[in-house]
Amino acid sequence: MTEPTFTPRVFSGIKPSGGLTLGNYLGAIKRFVGMQGGAFETIYCVVDLHAITVWQDPAELAQATREVAAGFLAAGIDPSKSILFNQSMVSAHAELGWIFNCVARLGWMNRMTQFKEKAGKNAEKQSLGLYAYPSLMAADILIYHATHVPVGEDQKQHVELTRDIAAKFNHDYKTDFFPLTEPVIEGPATRVMNLRDGTKKMSKSGESDMERINMLDDADAISKKFKKARTDPAPLPETLDGLKDRPEARNLVDIYAALSDTTPEAVIAEHAGAGWGAFKPALADLAVSKLAPISDEMGRLMNDPAEIDRILRSGADKARVIAEPILQRTYDIVGLLR
Ligand code: TYM
Question: How far apart are CA 139 and CA 249, in angstroms?
Fold first, then answer.
């Protein structure tokens, strides 16, 4: 049997809950921009239906959706090269999500570490949506037959689950309709860590604002946060090996590498022996020079919400053209009359 060929297509998404962080930028958006205009068709999405798996104030959700869209655009996503839209405008995501809820097994969902982390001891009080979230994520990807999904390390398990869902669907319905999507987790910043604790991921929801860089932080805040970032007393080593068991130091080197489009090895080669008194200000200056133009542009875009909404609506129109036939074909395969 010949394998079906799928158009090389990238899909990825970001939740509009809280603001964007440096982790989202380096682990996701910057890489999305890098994949644009090349071998892949690129589809990027503000996943608002995922955001409401935990409570979101309605007015803030609309604003956060525009802010993430502004972040994509300001960082270089070009609506003439990529499809950019918000998830709820393309109802096929939710419709395929339901079908995948009937394909995914409870045992698979019970293994999802992100649910366990988020739910903590309060699993009984979480929404059913938070639990089913990875199956909607599989639908986001597979409603476009996406072949590649660039994400940070924390989403790897969800992309693997997407493959499991595709494989089970294909097996159960004796078809090869859905591709087995590849996660793309590359570069020095696939897991940007918290600036106060190098063993924890930098996230939007951490307790203290000092532990993360927000995309809308001003130059002073960025400098202050890097200068106060926790480190150990030793200077930078001669080789990358010397950063083993030094998670905070490693994180700052990785961030430096990602911001300057180089490798951690090259950063160490350039700064070997430097103390933090020299490295941290250099990192802060680099971050400000890279992030300030993006946050300025985000601010400018946010002043014209109607224009952002227009871009998202036009992206959704293009997304539907790909998604609708895939949904209809899925309904046929499943035997749903239409
Ligand atoms: P979300 O909104 O939590 O994060 C968006 C993207 O940013 C990456 N990321 C990071 N990368 C490196 N270091 C960090 N500290 C860091 N924090 C966040 C995430 O890995 C992600 O790539 N479930 C997804 C959203 C989603 C999605 C999808 C992604 C929904 N459907 C389909 C891909 C394909 C999420 O919550 O990402």
Answer: 38
